[in-house]
Write a structure and sequence with these properties.
9-stranded mixed β-sheet; Rossmann fold; two-stranded antiparallel ribbon; 13 strands; Ferritin; alpha/beta; 3 domains
Amino acid sequence: MLEQNLKSKINQLWDKFWSGGIANPLTAIEQMSYLIFIKRIEDEDNKRAKRATAKKDVYQSIFDGKIKISNMEYDKRLCRWSEWKHLPAEEMLNHVREIVFPFLKNLHNGEGSFFAEHMKDAIFLIPKASLLQEAVAIIDELNIAKQNVDTQGDIYEYLLNELKTSGKNGQFRTPRHIIRMMCELVDPDLNDKICDPACGTAGFLVNAYEHIIKKHTSEQFLKEEQDGDTHGLIGDKITNPAAWKKLREDTFFGNDFDTTMVKIALMNMILHGITNPQIKYLDALSKRNEIKPKYTVILANPPFTGSIDDSDINDSFKVKTTKTELLFLELFYQTLEIGGRGAVVVPNGVLFGSSNAHKEVRKLFLEKCQLEAVISLPSGAFKPYSGVGTAILVFTKGGSTEKVWFYDMKSDGYTLDDKRDFIDGKGDIPEIVSLFKTKGTCANSILVDIDKIKAEEYNLSISRYKEVVHEEIIYDDPKKIIARVQQNDKDIQKDLDELKEMLR
């Protein structure tokens, strides 16, 4: 949800790429992402240098030292955006193509680097010096170097919206305030292994990281904005270097079957401080995926629509279906360790679908997990991309369910039309987070016993269990109503007679 000024700049950027000869939408988005990343790595490097100075730590800039390209050595400082953004157009194009882009591709080029692995086939495709110069000027004006804002993902979301391609195959980004709520509900922390098997631009993983840092930052540094973003996340309470290393290198895992998404997710996570994000180019439902319990937290909003070819479905699935939303739910169950927690978005059809596969999946989550909550989202939560009704399932693997807490969210803090204008950015979210801890009930929530749910064929729709309150309406005596109508007729006739007199 970008400010109008930022939207205008992005529209200008797109117009420049279109008129500059890059007509393929995904190619344009990928090339824009590279430029934005190059800009932001300097912003982030400067920010971290200042933090290190404030804490009196030694900081090694990514622009220190030399880089060898085609048997020539260059000072890495020449790769800073600020060093080359004022160059003449032709000189700028050659400089970026021959020095800056190779530097970008080799960034984080250590053993086991997923970034280097997926960037090795990246190609710089901006053909004209004038296009590069104009794009650099617009990106410079975007002013996106704001701490803890998932701007990379927002830009991608907005570009997709403008190009009318968002939402195809069930793909669209989850609003950040919904992601933050889901993080609050499962409460990831240090030593967790957190996965999003259909990660897109990595919004869930980035927000999980920020949730953890926030928990370990002293109150004096935190500043919460009106829209829920929190600044000052420095993690000063994490004093063990080994804990920082594990958090940044061995905590966040994701997959996506779109190579462009994978690259953007990697860039997004690195810009947020996750030095070795483990994002793979992989269809998580396919035979290529090694499915076994290895994560302690799942946060996801997998593709809702579409199906997978029977022959490509992973052999470990027990539920017989080709519906991706059901297969993903079994995947979450299978990849979580016992005691692992999950918060995932599902289409409403999952809650009440009558097929054997639907019932089998719901039974799995009720009898082999503790299904803690079913939170129905307002129908406009994913507009303008989709009006599909959705819900969030919150669960813990292991044990069995005794009671399920249902909450019917009426507002998420934004208007529920296509514009999704800001109201307060919160809506029912604070109440949901607060009541979830105790499973307390209110006008919008109920607690339902498992036996009642079993009797309803494991139906998880709140409407099945919420009592309908019929308000008694007391009507006036018919004689009084007739008298009132007659009196009204006399009053009307009197007014008409007066009007006639005035017209004489």
